[in-house]
Structure formats: structure tokens, C-alpha cells
Design a protein that fits this description.
single chain; mainly alpha; elongated
Amino acid sequence: MELDANTQLMFHWIPIVFGLFLMSPLGEGLGKQLSSRWESLDTVRGRTLGGMIAVMFGGFTVSAHTLWIHNKASEMGGGQFCSADGVWDCSSVIGNSDWNTMPFIGLPWGLLGMMAFALFLWLAISIAKEPSATWVSSNLSIGRNFGILGILMIFYLIYAEYEIGKLCQYCTTAHVSHVASTIGFFRLSKMYGGSDWSNSSVITAETESKERRKRGGYVAPKNSSEEE
């Protein structure tokens, strides 16, 4: 049984909704439940980063789907590739040759979305892996600046949808992911250097030490009594 485009869209929303919930205050209980598997989710910083990564993953997959629709529309010279429901009709938006590529550059918006979310994922995963590194502040700054730039592009795309007279449900999903990711970078920047960040670092260090011992990669130093 072939799923229609709106049903397929729900698969992109699953990680996005999960990430948004984890980033919100309501995600504290869920984070504590999952902390037995991922201990970083027991902290505010860990839940924020974990939620952001889930949201960004959903943004990347929906951007890839958007690029596929764009390529199919170009290949076939148009067509109905998305379920139309009144004002919601992504085929009319993505298949519109006047608006479906970035001005001057000419790249499809779906490809640009994939590149943006790939960068966001790299920044967030790097921070999650080494939260006390000296370059964390630079990563946060890059995330904030690219996030703001992307929001300006979103305003342009909303204007394009207004001119076309239709809304693209796939594009809107990517927009929500981008805005949520940008908010996440601002939240992390506010958190950086504070107690939430430093307390998380201590927990992360303890977790890494436990993991190294489990893998046999950590040798505890001997104290003076043991040496005697």
C-alpha cells in the first residue's frame, strides 16, 4: 500500500515532535526516564542538545524529501507529488519554476535545507561530545548567526508562498525545525558558562569515566597504600 504525501510527512514530524518535547520543560520527566540509557539527558544541557539533534534530523530528512519532489517535478515538467488539501499544496510551491530555487545561486531550497541542517547537526553533536572544549563558544556563535540568516530566508519563502497563493506543508515543517534549532542555540548560549553548563560537565565527565572502565580503557591510579 502506497502512502500519500501527507502521511509520509508524519514520519518527518516524529523526531521533530520528540525533540521539541525533550527541549521543553515537560521533557524533564522523559529525560530522567531515558537517562539510564543516555545519562546526559538527566541535565538541562543534555536534554536541550538531545532535543535539538532530533529536531535537526527531522529537518534534514524533510529537506531531502523536498529536494526529491523538486527533482521529480523538474524531470516530469510538473505533476502532483503532494496531497493537496485546500491551501496546503506543496506541488504548487515546490513545482513553481519562478520560486523553487534560491535567487542568484539557483540551488533548490531542499538542497540548501539539507546543507543547513547538516551544519547544525555537526555543531550540536560536536558540542555534545566535547562540552568543555575551547571552541564550544565559536560553535554556538556560528549556530546563532546561521540560524538568524535562515530565518530571514524563511520570511522570503513565506512571501513566495503568498505570491503563489498556496502553502507548502513540507517547507513549513523544515521552517519549524530551523526556528526550533535556532532557539536551541540561543538557549545553549545563555546556559554556557553558567551552573547548568558546568554541572552538566561534571556529570558528563563522571559518565565518560564509567564508560571507560566498562570498556577496560581506564586504569585507576594507585594510591600510596596500594604501592606499599
